[in-house]
Amino acid sequence: MSSYSPDIIIQGATHNNLKGIDLNIRSGELTVITGLSGSGKSTLLFDVLHAEGQRRYVETFSPYVRQFLDALPRPRVENISNARPSIAVEQKNSVRNSRSTVGTMTELCDYFKVWFSEVASLFDPINGARIHAENTESITHQIISKFSGRTLVFGFLMEKPSHMDQEAFLSYLGQAGYTRILSNLKYRRIDSIKKLNEPDEKIFVVLDRVKINDSQKKRIIEAVNLAVDLGKGVGEIRCSKGSKIETIVSGLRSKENYRFFLPATPNMFSFNSPHGACPRCKGFGKTISIDPRKVIPDESLSIFENAIKPFTGKVYGHCKEDLRVHCDRLNIDIYKPYKELTDQQKQFVWKGDEDYEDESSLWYGVEKFFSWLEKKTYKMHVRVFLSKYRGYFLCEACNGTRMQQDTECWRWKNLTLSQLYSMTIDELLKTLPKVSKSSKNKRNIALTGIRTRLGYLQDVGLSYLSLDRPSKTLSGGETQRVNLTTCLGSALTDALFALDEPTIGLHEKDIGNLIGILRKLADAGNCVCVVEHDEQVIKAADKIVEIGPHPGDEGGRITFHGTVSELLKSKESVTGRWLRKKGNKNLQNSGIEACDIKSNGFLKIKCASLHNLKNFSVDLPLGKFVGIAGVSGSGKSTLLNEIIFESLSKNSNSKAVLSEKPFEGVVLVDQNTISKTPRSNAILYADGWTPIKEALGRTDEAKKLGYFAADFSFNAGSGRCEECMGLGYELIEMQFLSNLQTPCGYCNGMRFKDDILAIKLGDLSVFDILNLTVDQAVTRLERYPKTFKKLKLLQEIGLGYLTLGQPLNTLSGGESQRLKLVKYMGNLSRNRKHSILLIDEPSTGLHMQDVQKLVHALQTIVEAGNSLFVIEHNSQILNSADWILELGPGAGKEGGEVVFNGPPNSRKGQNLKNTKTSKGNKSRLNKFNYSDRKTSGEKGFLEVLGVEENNLKNLDLRIPHNEFVVVTGPSGSGKSSLAFDVIFAEGQRRFMESMSSYARQFIEQMPRPKVDHIDGIPPTVAIEQRVTRGSRKSTVGSITEVTQYLRLLYAKLGIQLSTDSKQPLQKTSAFEIEKRVHAQLKSNSKKNGGKHILLAPLITGRKGHHKPIVNWANDKGFEEVRCDGVYFRTEAFEGLDRYRIHDIEAVITKWSKNPSRAQIKSFIQYALEVGSGRCLLSNIDCDDDTWYSTKRVDPHTGISYPDLEPAYFSWNSAKGRCPFCKGYGKIFDWMKEDLPASDDWWLIKDGETCPKCDGQRLGVIAQNVVLGDHSGRKLSLPQLLSCPPDAVIQFLKDLKVEDSKKPVIESTVPEIIQRLKFMENVGLSYLSLDRETSTLSGGEAQRIRLAGQLGSNLSGVLYVLDEPSIGLHPADNRRLLSSLRQLLKNGNSLLVVEHDQETIEQADFLIEIGPEAGIRGGNLVSIGKTNASMNLEPSVAENNSSYEFHTFFDQKRKAVPKGKKNNKSENWLRIKDAKFRNISKASVDIPIALLSVCCGVSGSGKSSLVRGVILPKVKESILENKTKSVSPLGTLFAGNLFSQVIEVDQKPIGKTSRSAPVTYLGTWDRIRSLFAQLPQSKVRGYGPSTFSFNVKGGRCEKCKGNGKIKLEMNFLPDSYVSCSSCNGARFSPEVLELKWNQKNIAEILALTMEEASHFFEFDYFLHNTFALMTETGLGYLTLGQSSPTLSGGEAQRLKLASELVKSLDRSKYSRRQKAKPTLYILEEPTIGLHHRDRMKLFRLLRRLVDDGNTVVVIEHDIDLIANADYVFEMGPAGGLQGGKCIFQGTPKELLTSKKSLTAPFLQKFNS
């Protein structure tokens, strides 16, 4: 293990029953957490340790992705330091994906596809002959060896096109250069033939006639090559008389039918790849189609009796009548049972008439009926109908192998890959070859991975599984052990692996091997924590943590923490006491006498066959405790569940299973969950609740209030809380956070109404009783015998810690099983007859002490005269059995036999092959040797072998853990491919395998990289480069994710105010309304009389005459309505003024005196039903109305409001945004057409603040939701977002909320505060959260992004960063480097792709990829410690490393204009008194026709000045042609000297694959024109458009000119495969035949820029354009490269080059009047550029300046600053402390500036 990995430190864990636990977990150790059942073990490991580790890692994903992941809640713990990304290996199978198999889960399929593609041979499916890959050399060699001395004719067959006549065909052959053909078995000249007689229209075209010998080898090679090439892979050799001698084929072709096979590639052997998956079933192995068994489920019925199920019912019942008519016609008896019909009659019913056609009167058949329905699947009811009759069937195309047909032609030792997959693990290991230690090729690396992973599966007792076994068919224990081997095989390091009792279902002989697996995981540097009770595992642990001392509330404390030797001496440890007891005293087996056996008889199993049990026979004694043991997979569950239980429960007279003793029933007690809802509990399930209910119903208080026993149920009756319907909690959906359960606001989590809770049984309410533990209830409820008996059973079986009301869905599998056992045991006294009880591993999850209680309970069952059959591996239970049956001797096919059958203490019992009872059971030694374990302080490595991703050339690397590693090299050399496409992708992919398959489909699925082997990889986090700053709607709050959390907070806790009265809305339950109305009536009757009217609203605030609604009220029996406060009779209602707004309420009832509670309840319920959840009580005497609502309602106006949800607080949602400005907060000109004509929108200038929302972006609902603090301050979301981070933190810490809502605070506020503190830590506390990200500087945007990603407080993670220095001033970059060093101290590793000099100098380890870009890169130039790589050994080529920096002052720089800088000077662009954001009265002078650089610390105002002031001001000057331009931004002089201003940014040049550099540069049209001028093009009528891949004409129509086709793979990301029609060439074969200088149009697109500059030397424009691209460092790009694949830096240089292209022909037209120059503005163009490329960029900028243009660059790069003509620096700090110009002048003058923060760095690098 690594000394660099700090301990995980838990402080103050109080989750569930934990009592402030403090604990350290060490990396590289196996830690076992044990203790009594229910003491808090799983809470500590899974709810605290695992939850926090996974939560922090998941935080690195986007909020969108996080909502689909298994969001675990933040645990209740004071602090967890150095948390590791966590993987839980639990006892459950959640896999539902039909693609997943054992092979894919363990990644064995990935290794097999590589290995098999290397070793397999191709066999002809027709004759079984082996097919070799033939080439010209091999064919020539065979011809010379076989036909030496003979004269042979070489040629090929050509078929006459159907559109050509014979004469035209012969003419075409002649024009193509052919001279002879074979006609009438004679070789004749083409020009002598007038007519062809060959009937098959295939002509043998002669290419050459050669006498075969070695001297003619070169000529033979040429002839073979031509024959094969022109014959499209197939040529012929004929004798001089014309007879065919042999067919010659190239590549992998069958000589029988010339079928071509693709060469073996790994993807061909993967059913999850479109290259290898069966095209029909898409790799599933099964297809979905109509199942005849579902269509005709009961063949004993006749057609008349509705045998054909879909023809029943009203919708398709007419089909039955159609069938009856046609059956009568053919004399088919429709009253005869369907099974008695002849096969021909059944065929007619199913297939229909052979001559049937659409719309004909013949019988269509059941099959065509469903085919017709398939065409209607756009209708929902049709899809539902079809789903009832569909089923899964073995795919007929691949026969279930999942592979395409070509794949099955490849074999190794006559075995296909699917046949290997069908073997068991044991069989595979015997079949596969041994690994050759001498070779490290792909074959051996893959084979090593295969054998290693197969060995792991064998070690954990899964040797009986096959690799094609579907994952969803595995048991929970099997899934856990498969996942465990996957974890070990993934070679992850520095992660936390949390395992839940991995020994469950595992035989004792395999536990030693399991311990070895756990040990290997720990030795890899991981934290391995196991909840376990097994003695062997406990004794093998490095550290043991015992939780206790008792279960439930009396547990949750650490009773022991230490080593095994310390545990055995501990007096406090329960586990220690049991281990000492087992070591000193062996429990004795119970005896069994022969007479007992005979008196009870046997359960006889005869010739039973199922799965691996073949003709299985055995006799087992009845009335005894029989233990069934054996290795995993030996057939135990098959025997108990599927043979004994199925036979006895369904057929007591079964021949396979016979009981010699009569039995009343057979019961199977398995570990399936009892309930999936929280509405059932322990006492209810155990049948002990009814006496309690009845007793509560008999109390005087219950009778007085009119409650009965049924009302004391939270599932039904009138006693439960009506708001939560008896659940006791409210489920709050938290979107991307874990959902919360908060106590119901009305019953406060007590589940019942206040009246019910007031009724006591003794001193206990119904709520108090349900909160008692079983142990407490035993002493409090002795008066109720039925309940007491059940409670005693629960206590005796070890469940005394459960509360009576604990929901059953929270129980573990072992607890559920024991509860089922209690339910059965409670009925034993009633059952006088003998019963058979079958139990599957009852010791699951039990501590040794609890097992002893279980043994006592099991013996009680047997003593009552019942038979007990138990599957078990636990020696404590087997030792107590009367009889043991052991199955084996192995698993799978090697199991299913009786190894031992008899009493354990008999002589035969001494020969138990695998199973051992506690007698003589000593700790087993496993086969793993730990002597080679890593010692503390030894550092690990990330080993990467055989990397061939993108342009990387088979790299092998060994990268140290816990170090600062920098990857550098020229732009496009392959750095990012190594760091992101290989290392990051593989690290995240391996970790994400632990997530659910449902969640993974929402995460961008990165394909497995092209790499032979990766070992020692930690979980990875990528922090990639983002040069864009979001849209106008993006804010600081949104990119830091603070806004997302605040939306959630306001939606769940916000106080909603009325948009009119600004008063809080009210919402209550019907029960609460009843109470309030009763209280109000009572109060009003004392004050001013008792006349009241109860009304229900029908219309609120709506125009219209409203006759229909009043007529409806009349029909419903309402006599009166109130309209706008006036009462009207509903009869003869005349209507209202249709143009006015009205309120109408129906009169429900009138009360002149106080009604009873029952009357109030009845009328209130009716009023709420009529009023859709609203009603109002009007006091006639004082004309006062009071509104009540079960919804959100304004208490004054009665207007109801929708329930809040986060969408109402999002300006990106139609629900939440201001409907006028659409969430922008500003009104733009493009919006005005859609705005109402009633307002003066046209007066608002473009970009002014929206007058409706005052720039708050949100609608009125969100603007009127507030949160309040204890000081009384209330803020809406927009108001809070306008505050700086420190003010937001202060407000959130002081929030005032109800106690029941505090879980929402605990879930969200810490996340918000954490992110806001990140902003403070990186010096951005001056930014408000509503600041648009488009207004941020590059440095501000970069620091925000880095702060959020690097602040996750994880340990053991490999952070992969892509140029973190971009946008940062050298001073800010130095602070960043300090933060990165802190990450290393926290136990993380860093892999940084970087060009920055200081970052490289501070690295611990340097990797350089190069030496150049593109195909000339991808090599490992240097690797090692920084000093070693900077000072290479003499043996290394001197120029290998490009790691060199030159900060120099260019001698060729242009001089800055001299003279005064007055306002009329044409040499200076001047800006005076600039005001924008943090800039206040700044003045800057920029020289014309020079290269100027604007520098300064991040956030100082560089972008604000250049992009926010100068850019728009120059545009305005050009537009208005004014020398002086004045505006609020400032005053600009000489802006009209330019013809245009161009901002060259790093945005993509194209968003689709159809865009390419060649199209962007404008050269593609010229190239297409050249091809259109070819003579062949003119003959065929081809124009330039024919050579376009974007329009019809010449493109390949199958792929529409894309060159690839998108394939949708279910449950997998969509894949793109090369088009099979054009092989990726994008054009039709006819177009590809045309060549210019030996290259077709597709080959032109494949040229690099550098190659194209040489190829087009004849064309001035094309040659110079591509040469210019090469000069700018982009010579490695291909002409047809997809634009979206270009980096931001590549896109920016391409844009600059395109500007220079415009001036290529300028010298030819020098006499023309010169146009005004251009002003170019660039922001940080050096992003992503290596030093060499920066120099190329600099020369490119110089060329722009040499052409008379002015270039202004915002930049931090010292090289560029040093080589500029002029520099102006903003500062002196960021934010409000910046915005001033602190220096203007040349770079040399900058060196002497004392104010400049850049000068010290310039001096350092220039020294």
Structure write-up:
This protein has 1807 residues and is of the alpha+beta class. Strands 5-19-20-3-21-22 form a 6-stranded mixed sheet, with helices on both faces. Strands 10-9-11-8-12-13 form a 6-stranded antiparallel sheet, covered by helices on one side. Strand 34 and strand 35 (955-960) form a beta hairpin. It starts with 7 loop residues before the first strand and ends with a helix.
- Main beta sheet: 6 strands, mixed
**Proportion of residues in extended strands:** 15-25%
How does the helix and strand content classify structurally?
A: alpha+beta
The level of helicity is 25-40%
* Number of discrete helical segments: 60
The global form is globular
Report the strand count: 67
**End-to-end distance:** 44 Å
Mean pLDDT: 84
Please list the strands of the largest sheet in the order they lie side by side.
5-19-20-3-21-22
Poorly predicted spans = 918-937, 1428-1446, 1706-1712
Supply Rg: 42 Å
TL;DR?
The chain has 1807 residues and is of the alpha+beta class.
Which key phrases capture this entry?
1807 residues; alpha+beta; six-stranded mixed β-sheet; six-stranded antiparallel β-sheet; 60 helices; 67 strands; globular
Secondary structure elements and their pairing?
Layout lengths: L7 E6 L7 E5 L4 E6 L5 H18 L4 H4 L10 E5 L4 E4 L12 H4 L2 H12 L1 E3 L6 E2 L4 H12 L3 E9 L6 H10 L4 E4 L2 E4 L12 E10 L5 H14 L3 E5 L5 E6 L2 E2 L6 E2 L24 E5 L1 H4 L21 H13 L13 H9 L13 H10 L5 H8 L2 E5 L15 E2 L5 H5 L3 H7 L10 H18 L16 H14 L6 E5 L7 H16 L3 E5 L3 H6 L2 E6 L8 E6 L1 H6 L4 H11 L9 H7 L1 E9 L2 E9 L3 E6 L5 H15 L6 E3 L6 E4 L12 H4 L4 H8 L2 H6 L23 E4 L7 E4 L10 H4 L8 H5 L3 H7 L4 H12 L16 H13 L10 E5 L7 H16 L3 E5 L3 H4 L4 E6 L8 E6 L38 E7 L7 E6 L3 E5 L6 H18 L4 H4 L10 E5 L4 E4 L12 H4 L2 H12 L1 E2 L13 H19 L3 E12 L3 H9 L4 E4 L2 E4 ...
Helix pairs in contact: 4-15, 5-7, 10-11, 14-15, 15-16, 16-17, 28-29, 36-43, 37-39, 42-43, 43-44, 54-55, 55-56, 56-57
